[in-house]
Amino acid sequence: MLTDLLSQPVTILTCALVLAVAAVNGWTDAPNAIATAVCTGALSFRRAAGLAALCNLLGLVWVTTVNAQVTEALFSIAGFGASLPAARSALCAGLCAVVVWSTAAWRLGIPTSESHGLAAAVTGAALALPEGTVHPGPWGRILAGLALSVGLGWVLGRLSGKVLSALPLSPALCRRGQAGGAAAMAFLHGAQDGQKCLGILLLGLTLGGAVPTSGAFSIPLPLILLCAGAMAAGTALGGERIIRRVGRELVCLAPRQGLAADLGGGACLLACTLLGLPVSTTHAKTAAILGAGSRPNRRVAGEIVLTWLFTFPGCGLLGFFLARLFLFAP
Fold first, then answer.
1. Nearest 5°: phi and psi at 238?
2. Rounded distance, CA 85 to CA 247, Å?
3. pTM for the complete prediction?
4. pLDDT, tens only, 231-257
5. 140 in a structural domain
6. CA distance 138 to 14
7. Could you report the per-residue pLDDT of 222-234, keeping only the tens digit for each?
8. Are 198 and 71 in contact (CB under 8 A)?
9. How far apart are CA 132 and CA 221, in angstroms?
10. What is the pLDDT of residues 12-56, one digit of tens each?
11. Count of domains for the chain
12. Residue 150: which domain range?
């Protein structure tokens, strides 16, 4: 497979763009997993980023051996038609759209879902093709996961807060618990978001002929390690803007509330991952923080929710128009 990959420049470009998306995801999305631990003083930013990078990698490697339904959903999210050159160009356009959108959101310090942006941009790019189609099955699972992750994340965050408030826990003990909570959240972020990037990587390699299209759905181990490594490297770069936004500006968090948010968000992600539902770490953790925290900043919460609402149409349209540009540029 590696020889086939290196012999096709377009496939190399596609692979590089997917890995760039994985790195940007680790850079801008993974900080949500460690935001509460950093903002309550449980971990320094440097230690938390290193821990998240390692756990992201381990999470993706683990989940693809247990339940790869999320990877399969992104792999089959849209049809690109019979023209492979046009399909590869459109896919590259969709990946560029995700990088542009995510970088803009990071610049503003707003936590957005790169994984949902990836699904929307790839679908929009596919629809720019004459034979492009949307596959409703994977999209149904994405939308179901979106609704479940936000609602369940808030409920579990609130419930965890109430349970912990009844226990005689010192702030120091809660901070120690948050170190484990941050590791678990980062592990599950790798399990969820890493699978989505891996699904698009497999799609790109299939369109380039480096992975056979026939036979049972399978994921080569080198691709898992490549995608996990890119995400871990992106996480190691950090994301202090988003951590400040989520952990300090959105709500007021004490160590007990931070631990409750970690427990609620982690439980939500674990349930959705085992069910094979593609969900966003950003949505699950932010909802859990709102459930566990007190006195939310309505302005910041409103900006975050608006970004969530615009991610699907924004990335979809950006992917569509970039694909048109790529296809018809001289």
1. 95, -165
2. 44
3. 0.83
4. 888 877 766 677 776 666 777 778 898
5. yes
6. 22
7. 888 888 888 888 8
8. yes
9. 30
10. 888 888 888 888 877 776 677 787 888 888 888 888 888 888 888
11. 1
12. 2-325
